[in-house]
Amino acid sequence: MRYFPAFLDLDGAVVLVVGGGEAAAQKLRLLVRTPATIRVVAEKVCAEVAELARRGRVELARRPFRPRDLDGARLAIAAGLADPELATLVTAARGLNVPLNVVDRPDLSSFIVPSIVDRDPVVVAIGTEGTAPVLARNIKALLEPLLPAGLGRLARFAGGWRAAVARRLPDGRARRAFWERLLAGPIAEQVLTGDLGAAQDAAEQALQGAPALPTGHVALVGAGPGDPDLLTFKALRRLQEADVIVVDRLVPKAILDRARRDARRIEVGKAPGGRSTPQAEIDALLVREALAGNRVVRLKGGDPLVFGRVAEEIAALSAAGIAWEIVPGITAALGCAAAVGLPLTERGMRRGLTLLTGHTRDGPAEHDWAALARPGQTLAVYMAVGKAAHLQERLLGAGIDRLTPVTVVENGSLPEQRLATGAVGNLVETLIDGGIKGPAIIFIGAHPLRRPVALPGAAPRPAAAQPEFAEAA
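Above: the chain sequence. Below: its structure as tokens.
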């Protein structure tokens, strides 16, 4: 380890930045979060640096660097300097023992600036000793979703209890048990969600030695259209925290691979025309697992609020007095449209978007077909591959133009994604010619603006029939 990691106290310190271009601005975005006095020396500055100076966030001197600029500086940063000016700065910094970082020049630097995940006062620094800055940024991207935005609030909350804990719990084991209880579980969750009053009361009870009752919780989480990179940060955190994951049939293995490894997984598949888990059984399962004190994730394809039967599950949880939350996901219509470059609305052409289902428990869905047939809108039809003839007949009967464009996206966002285009007048033929089996979304009223680039690893679909799409039907 050539570089020793350390955190430098900049309270009351002076930091010198020499250079005023974009590279300097990038460093200043981080420095202005500290309490340091920041001085910038540069003949020319970009708009961002000029704005920071105008707002009084930095002291700006528009001139070349002079060695006396280092007087009183705790550290210095150089960005975008010509060789003569840079050489003067490096020599002066070394002579005065002022730590210096030269952007993209580790050979001239006495310290390096790591990639940082900032959850003040929690700060995670990632460094590669200057060998691979892009790798450090990639590691940062992996860590970001795992650290809640409110993590700093939790650290400050814990800090507020340190004196009381030290005074009232002299035994080291008792202190450790208290901190484990405070920093993981219901108290931490209350702090992260901003319910500080309840967290204060629970922490006081824990400090008095009140026994911790198992408190179950259910997160109704949207898994998105299938690509694990489209999961939200909160969805990833809930998957990492879960004791039990109750998962739909359409959630790919790649998403479950992001979950906590030792979480118990219970499949509750719903296949049209095949084996299905009754909704009442799913509701009872969620209640039972939460009452046992488990953190439960109900993982649904797409978004829980779109054809996800979330109302029935919430009703069952609420009746049992179980805390629940909804973690939204990218619904299939949005994910599929993005995957093929299809604008769902467009100024002057399509002024509305309607999400509808083509299938119900009792058969083909019926709608206000006259309203749906009006021009100037986009329809995104879920669970309609097997009911395409009904959909086509009803729309044509309501007077829709036969040439209204149709776009069908199968397995949107996944490597096996498939696209078919046509018109309402030949909707059924479009599905047959395109080999569309499902799961798929049928878009009526728009075509993609461009032919999408094939996803890496994309391969022709097998000929075997696939069940039609249902986010959680």
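The CA atoms of residues 101 and 109 lie 5 Å apart.
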